[in-house]
Amino acid sequence: MSRSLKILVADTTDPFFNLATEDWIFRDMDPNTKVLFLWRNDKSVIVGRGQNVWTECRLEELEKDGVHLVRRQSGGGAVYQDLGNTCFTFMSGKEPNRTTKDLYRENNLILLGALRRAGVTADSSGRNDLVVEDKAGPVKISGSAFKESRDRCFHHGTMLMDVDLGRLARYLTPDSKKLESKGIRSVKSRVKNLSELVPGFDHQQFCAHLTEGFQEFHDAEAEIQHLELDSLRTIPQISEYYETLRSWDWVYGKNPQFQHTMKERFSWGGCELHLDTAKGKIRESKLFTDSLHPELLLSSERYLKGKPYSVSGIREALSEHRAAHPDQGEQLGSFYRWIEATL
Fold first, then answer.
1. Does this model's pTM top 0.85?
2. DSSP letter at 196?
3. pLDDT for position 1
4. Structural domains in the chain, sorted by start
5. Own/partner pairs for 63-67, CB < 8 Å, 24+ apart?
6. pLDDT tens readout for residues 111-154
């Protein structure tokens, strides 16, 4: 069966819309069409479907710097993206006598060919990464993942063009804290921007090389379609996926169960607090204290239970606790501010 080609380039840098568009391509587009989708996201940390955002990134820093936190539909590790990062997505239908490994190798050949056009010699490492040789050994310039359904295969990844690597370390290196999580942890790798290898090499040039190589490899031509935000809003499936990706329940409520243990000594005594969370909410809390008057603090267990594991959730618990004990506001304030500061 002959297969047509489709090349899509997003003109929006909204990460929620771009990921919603990617879901639309995977779920709803004709699998008899081979698709190449190229896009970039504004400053974002994107975590895998099975990851715990509290163990993967510094949420306070993200909020302070106005960085988007996005949970994608697929698995894998956490990544930082900005306009110095090019995202690519290949979609194709399953073919008789061709394995997913064959398709992965095919797409890697197209990517490596695009890099060669820019004067970059790279190699594939395993199935997931593209690397270049550095003085200290191979460094990663691209990472990718693969997923499939009954009738189609999906290969997507990122190419490091000129990413702010300082922000990558700032947001994806969480402070040391006692968190025991069942979530999937990211694997850290040595990385390098392509702009260090080829000064001036940018997103537009890479996209031009990749679209040319995509058509040449498949010996077919395709008109490049530019996707704008307003046009994407008119597609019901994309709007639905977009609203899902933006929702609190998806970003935070999908977190796996984990436990957070914290200790501190105050002027009135020491505290050890254990928080058991699931789906982004505090399921149980247990406090141990050597305070001479522990009853006030121990009652925090019932105020914390059921609250979101977030600054707003802790503040809500404090508000309720203070309302019940208005004469103990100072002690309660210092206690809950300590919890808030450790999230």
1. no
2. G
3. 36
4. 4-251 (3.30.930.10), 258-342 (3.30.390.50)
5. 65/167, 67/43, 67/167, 67/171
6. 999 999 999 999 998 768 899 998 878 999 998 888 888 888 88
